[in-house]
């Protein structure tokens, strides 16, 4: 009897939540794969391309998900042990109709002039750094990135676009061909001793204590390949798959933030007004020193890196994901009182993909359960194994935040879509739901 009563109570609860869920009608999701122009890669070569005005969904839309793969001319996905996708992301800009930009650039400097307006995400690094809306690195292979209903990343709203300008998208690709490499992971980490460089991408001499990182693996550099190795030059493209819906007023827009663990933030007080502002200094990458140096070289020793960052505008956490490199253990964002806002862990590949991060656990908190206050000081922590030195590692926290909560339960859109989600990480979604996140 008790069991039956419990069952009917459960049924009532389920029916009730279905009734509330119905208040928000899911909008038809559109999905399409787009392709970048092609780039050629030979064993050991580096592609670092800035593709301007790439194909993108047009109109006033809510973006719901993104994934990106390196594919060959026939559309076959290239595995990471052949071509390591260091990073790939998409940036928004407005371009005047009488202003031209070459379709591909291999310099890391954005176009300038009155005809180009960079429209970065909501922050928080200095200048144009880490201003992308979507995209990070290899974890994209099997990490769900679906923005749950009824939230969306708003694009194509005509109101803020100045007269005579169009909204366009820049796709950045940094890939390293490690076929035949003397040291595949060394090439992927951009270790200086494996590349033919003496100066950085801007022509400045490298410092003696710079052992590797982005300043060693820019366009036209070459990583060391075994002398007996013969591999073909291949023509590759990025395939980026997006889902979206038409924008309607019931969609709640999310703000896109990327926090960098290397950010050396300083709070600056204006002497006359007393207003406090944050000055950011993101370095994008850092080096993990081997714990062997000070004799603590036991297996499993870890490197903890922390930074403190102020949340510019508070809100409700909708989604969290991190970009980490091989060797990472986890990454966490804590609130000012020490509560866990979101913690994520890498998922490592198997077989030939062993050692590569192929996915990341994500945070999809229950709506309204994880709030960050305006100006709240958050601690950003990343943990890497330190049994050896690792160069050019990153820890970027990608966080979607909304001003208000939906009055209906959030369901990640398109969650049954194995094609673009990957099976592995579906098991781990919601691993940092508040119940879990609350345990410390
Ligand atoms: C482009 O058009 C704007 C006015 O819409 C004008 O101010 C600007 O000088 C033009 N630039 C060029 C390069 O023609
Ligand atoms: C590195 O080697 C490649 C191929 O041999 C060459 O094209 C490139 O100019 C070299 N780059 C640098 C920075 O020395
Ligand atoms: C991250 O990993 C380190 C090292 O294993 C561990 O001590 C720490 O508790 C982990 N952090 C979280 C939030 O799980």
From TrEMBL:
Q: Which UniProt keywords apply?
A: Signal
Which Pfam family would be a valid example here?
Answer: SURNod19
The keyword Mitochondrion is assigned to this record: no
May I ask which residue range the UniProt record assigns to the signal sequence?
Answer: 1-23
Q: Which InterPro entries match?
A: Stress_up-reg_Nod19 (IPR011692)
User: Coiled coil where?
Assistant: none
How is this protein named in the record?
Stress up-regulated Nod 19
Q: Native species of this protein?
A: Linum trigynum
């Amino acid at each position: 009897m008790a069991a039956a009563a419990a069952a009917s109570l459960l049924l009532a609860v389920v029916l009730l939540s279905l009734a509330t869920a119905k208040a928000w009608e899911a909008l038809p999701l559109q999905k399409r794969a787009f392709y970048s122009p092609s780039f050629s890669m030979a064993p050991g070569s580096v592609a670092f391309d800035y593709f301007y005005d790439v194909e993108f969904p047009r109109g006033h839309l809510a973006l719901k998900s993104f994934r990106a793969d390196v594919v060959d001319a026939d559309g076959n996905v290239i595995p990471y042990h052949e071509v390591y996708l260091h990073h790939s992301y998409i940036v928004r800009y407005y371009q005047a109709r009488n202003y031209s930009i070459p379709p591909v650039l291999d310099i890391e400097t954005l176009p300038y002039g009155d005809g180009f307006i960079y429209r970065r995400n909501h922050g928080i690094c200095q200048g144009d750094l880490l201003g992308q809306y979507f995209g990070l690195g290899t974890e994209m292979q099997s990490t769900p990135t679906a923005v749950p209903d009824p939230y969306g990343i708003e694009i194509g709203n005509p109101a803020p676009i100045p007269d005579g300008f169009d909204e366009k998208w820049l796709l950045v690709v940094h890939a390293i061909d490690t076929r035949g490499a003397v040291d595949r992971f060394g090439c992927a980490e951009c270790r200086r001793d494996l590349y033919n460089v003496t100066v950085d991408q801007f022509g400045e001499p490298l410092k003696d204590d710079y052992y590797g990182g982005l300043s060693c693996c820019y366009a036209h550099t070459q990583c060391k390949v075994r002398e007996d190795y013969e591999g073909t030059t291949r023509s590759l493209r990025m395939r980026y798959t997006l889902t979206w819906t038409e924008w309607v007023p019931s969609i709640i827009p999310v703000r896109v933030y990327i926090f960098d663990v290397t950010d050396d933030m300083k709070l600056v007080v204006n002497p006359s007004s007393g207003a406090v502002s944050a000055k950011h200094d993101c370095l994008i990458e850092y080096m993990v020193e081997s714990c062997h140096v000070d004799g603590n070289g036991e297996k499993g020793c870890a490197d903890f890196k922390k930074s403190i960052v102020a949340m510019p505008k508070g809100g409700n956490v909708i989604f969290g994901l991190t970009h980490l490199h091989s060797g990472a253990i986890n990454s966490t964002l804590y609130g000012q009182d020490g509560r866990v806002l979101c913690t994520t862990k890498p998922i490592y590949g198997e077989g030939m993909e062993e050692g590569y991060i192929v996915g990341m656990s994500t945070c999809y908190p229950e709506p309204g359960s994880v709030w960050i206050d305006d100006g709240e000081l958050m601690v950003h922590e990343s943990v890497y194994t330190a049994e050896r030195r690792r160069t050019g590692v990153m820890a970027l926290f990608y966080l979607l935040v909304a001003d208000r909560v939906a009055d209906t339960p959030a369901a990640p859109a398109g969650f049954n879509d194995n094609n673009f989600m990957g099976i592995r990480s579906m098991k781990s979604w919601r691993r940092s739901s508040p119940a879990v996140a609350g345990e410390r």
